[in-house]
Amino acid sequence: MAAGRARRLLGSLWIALLLGQPDPAGAAARSGSQSLLTGSLVRTFTPLYFLVEPTDVLSVRGASVVMNCSAYCETAPKIEWKKDGTFLNLVSDDRRQLLPDGSLLINSVVHSKHNKPDEGYYQCVATVESLGTIVSRTAKLTVAGLPRFSSQPEASSVPKGSSAILNCEVNADLAPFVRWEQDRQPVLLDERVYKLPSGALIVSNATDTDGGLYRCVIESGGTPKYSDEAELKVLPDPEEPQDLMFVRQPSSLTKLTGQSAVFPCVAVGFPVPYIRWTRNEEELITEGSGRFLLLAGGSLEISEVTEQDAGTYTCIADNGNDTIEAQAELTVQVPPEFLKRPANIYAHESMDIVFECEVTGKPTPTVKWVKNGDMVIPSDYFKIIKEHNLQVLGLVKSDEGFYQCIAENDVGNAQAGAQLIILDLAPATTGPLPSAPRDVVATLVSTRFIRLTWRTPVSDPQGDNLTYSIFYTKEGINRERVENTSRPGETQVMIQNLMPETVYVFRVVAQNKHGPGESSAPLKVATQPEVQLPGPAPNIRASATSPTSVTVTWETPLSGNGEIQNYKLYYMEKGQDTEQDVDVAGLSYTINGLKKYTEYSFRVVAYNKHGPGVSTQDVVVRTLSDVPSAPPQNLTLEVRNSKSIMLHWQPPPAGTHSGQITGYKIRYRKVSRKSDVTESIGGTQLYQLIEGLERGTEYSFRVAALTVNGTGPATDWVSAETFESDLDETRVPEVPSSLHVRPLVTSIVVSWTPPENQNIVVRGYAIGYGIGSPHAQTIKVDYKQRYYTIENLDPSSHYVITLKAFNNVGEGIPLYESAVTRPHSDTSEVDLFVINAPYTPVPDPSPMMPPVGVQASILSHDTIRITWADNSLPKNQKITDARYYTVRWKTNIPANTKYKTANATTLSYLVTGLKPNTLYEFSVMVTKGRRSSTWSMTAHGTTFELVPTSPPKDVTVVSKEGKPRTIIVNWQPPSEANGKITGYIIYYSTDVNAEIHDWVIEPVVGNRLTHQIQELTLDTPYYFKIQARNSKGMGPMSEAVQFRTPKASGSAGKGSRPVDIGADYKPPLGGSNSPHGSPTSPLDSNMLLVIIVSVGVITIVIVVIVAVFCTRRTTSHQKKKRAACKSVNGSHKYKGNSKDVKPPDLWIHHERLELKPIDKSPDPNPIMTDTPIPRNSQDITPVDNSMDSNIHQRRNSYRGHESEDSMSTLAGRRGMRPKMMMPFDSQPPQPVISAHPIHSLDNPHHHFHSGSLASPTRSYLHHQVNPWPIGTSMSHSDRANSTESVRNTPSTDTMPASSSQTCADHQDLESTTGSYLANAQEEDSAQNLPTAHVRPSHPLKSFAVPAVPPAGSAYDPALPSTPLLTQQAPAHPVHSVKTASIGTLGRTRPPMPVVVPSAPDVQETTRMLEDSESNYEPDELTKEMAHLEGLMKDLNAITTA
To answer: DSSP assignment of 948-1014, as one string?
Structure first.
């Protein structure tokens, strides 16, 4: 019989394949296919479903109830009802009857304290004979209890306009049946009078008509039940303020989606409070909202609740004097809903099928399956898989019917069903069928799988086109499952998912194109018994008992399968990959010797005689914290001033923290008094400024780390002495006292000594170097460093090196050196150049491995921690040698930003002082002795945002065309936004001195840069300020901008840029003065013309008088000065030699500017141009006075009749010229006489200045005049065009050293093309600028100083060295002029202030002159100058090439 059944099944499969239907062996043919067209075996799915299902009902005793139900099928279904899972017998029931549509009618519900026959869960069951059965969802019938009041209304009073609440608490079932009466009349509910779901009545905004007797009524069928009556009195408004208080607060609610939720909230007080609501701390908008409604008294109603409405609701009552709050939670539950419903399935016998079902809900629903109305009990053939799906294995005919997935949670249930049809088997087609396969054997038998093999049937010995079906079942079970071979001709199969130690019966059927053949003889095979190993130990727990021990407990495995011999406890430090174990005999164990405050994972494996069982899941526990076991690292002291010392340190080494570091304890004491110790406890920051110390006192410091358990070990005492007096950081450092260079093949060793003046703060040194120019690269090193090796240079190249000390004010005066790197072929032994250091690193041909794993961890808006690993260290990464690491970082905005570097001796470094909201890149290199690595791969990090630190820029206000009362405010973002700008706030007022909270505020959302303000008053001055905002907060306000609105529509207002408006500022009188051509009255025009003409006439008269006076005075002073100089220098021994020595064309001409001592001549704008040095006095060619007219006239007003002879003596005196040095980044602190480049001779900005020059007393040299002979370039155009060098001529009666001063004036300095910056504003602004200094040095190493870059422009030394300007003088020949470039080469520069030092007294000057004569003989000078000339020719050749 079994063989015939198999033949029919395979025949049906074959026919189905021929007809193009879905393969039944593939587990399912879905409902989308209405039938399997297998000959006469046409069957379709028959719809059977519910049209109406019963719903939950609330009833009262004695009422009638209908539980609705209606089902659809082509054949009318039979409807039955279940109550609490049991079928109801409705035939003999006189109170319950079945209505024609299937609904259940319950007459006169019975309900008492001890008899509740009608309350319960009802379910409708629909059955169609020979088809199947379906069940509905379950519905609950609730009968309200007997009417009882848990609280009743009480007499109360309410002030007019306030709110009152009248309680009437009943059980929740009866609350819908409560109503209220006032004076025995029904209360009409409206927006002012509202009944809460609990039954209580709220009366808000009370009026006189609300007074009376109130009672509540329960009408639940039968006789109404009345509460006690209570009187509500309405009182007049109170005169005194009354405290704010809640009379009803909201309580937490749980609601279903779609229901309504009401949060009661009633507050009283005087003034009458205003109620508002927030959800999850966000303001809740109730006005105009469809679902959120503010009810009487301030209660909140939420209609049609959704899941998104869940959260914390806060009722806020505010009456202007006080604010109170009350909170409640809304929890939203969701009944089960189907995401995927089961689908109808076609199948054949012996197949495996799966009904899929996906549900959602809150709480998460549970799923059960019903077949034809009966619960499916999971077994070997009916299995629940993937949580909700039903799998049926080895189908038989009786499995046909309706299957339903029923989902249920606390708030509801739902059902969805599908039909399973088992297809009848079609007869095989005509043709020869295969015989039975031969020799079926089990070649591999295990505990849960068996491999079968067989030989082809006798009827088809080749068997290439045969496929096989393997039928198997447990012995004694009539459910047969089928497994098909994967390809034709295959004669083996693996049957899996079997049960251990179980007998199975197998048979094999072959099939060809005509259908299935005969079945093989049954083969019985028993699977192997499974080794009885222990299961996992339940309830494993781990608890830390101390900072170094953990106790682990567990219970005996439930499936012990024999006696447990012992347990093995495995444990491992989290993050490690090596597991340790210990043998345990009992059910607990304490592991000691663990690391403090470290996470460990634990698991347990039970052993019996067969071996190890199943492991438990890992449990993780952290050992307890303890005090740190090591002190902080790298404690350093930095003396800030005479009263404070800054401490820096690093945390204790990793693994020694023993807990979370909560802070650091700093102990310090005077070294002289070791018993007096002061303690200071700080936060987790790694620095602390100790202030309030005594001057010139040595202090010792030590630092210890803190955890919640206490204080760890402290560092060793580290001492530092406060300054006797505070170092000066109001000016830049002086020049370093020496600079030495030692060239190697690809590197240059630079060493130096600090400035001689130790009273000025030095923060570090800047080393610049490059081929031909020192501005190609710049490196900054710590102030303690005295040497540095510049590496990666080109061999046989001429490098120029500059060294500057710097502090927070700026960079000081530079020193210059040049060096030629050695050629590659230079194999001479390289000796080390030692200066103030034990050794100097020399490059080694074998570089080190660069650091790896560089990571940037952002800590704040200006701090990033860099960490890395060093593969050349041992595995524990412990540094035991003298290696150090160099960290470099930069940002790419602007693009030419240079790297900054710092050294570290550990595997991390804290980079501070960064810009907020800026992306930085970092890399690290390691140096050990003479060996260094290349730079590592880069890491990137973006600092956090910070509030804007500068106000919006370029604030302008203009009137809107055609709308005189509307103005438009425009601005630009702040230069230091420190993050993304999210908005602006515009403040405006008519009173500039008003408090800022009295100004009108206009918010601007986003990053817009313009805003309109309307409805302003005409002809009124307004003042505007703007403040920028980012995610971190508000930035500073811009300066006030004044704007006067127009008088009428025809005139436009006057907008201005930010001005400094003082407290005594008075708005300008009169009408507005429009710069845009607005009409002005004829009277104003005439007045303006008269003023201009008057000022012009007065100015001309004053200029003429001053010019005449100054011309006479200048002539007499020049004669005195020439005589004084000749008396001092008349027999100067270098005068004759000066003609023989030909100074070279220095490279400095392209890079430097120097300043001549400035003459206080009447000329407001002497012109100076830097030109190559004249070879002798004959090279200086007088130039006629054919300059353009205005220069010619102004010069003639003061020009003396200085002879050619006096000019030639100047050439001879250049050996005595003192050198003026100008700092890079700083400006003088005193009013100065300044020089700046002239960009064009006809540019009036550079020729005309108002005001007066600095006073003579400020112009004296303040520092020693350098008496050394110097090879310099003289200004040709100075001599030719100006006739006389610009010089400072103080009156002889104001200074005793005037004669010496005058001589110094004649010894001209190399000069920038310059003009006085002498107007009052510039003179005042120079008060805070640092002073330039005179640098005594070797004469051949004195080069001029680069000028100050303009504020806000990037200093770019990498640009080519080009002339800043070219002098053009029509009508007379001028030598080609090489002018110095200042700062960023080739760019226009603003005026550059330089201080003229004051002169020493006469005796000191004379002594210096004598020293200079004794130190340098003419032959020595000639030799040195010739040597320098040759060197510079080589340099010129290099730079020219």
So the answer is: -SS--EEEEEEEETTEEEEEEEEEE--TT--S-EEEEEEEEES-TTS-GGGSEEEEEESS--EEEE-
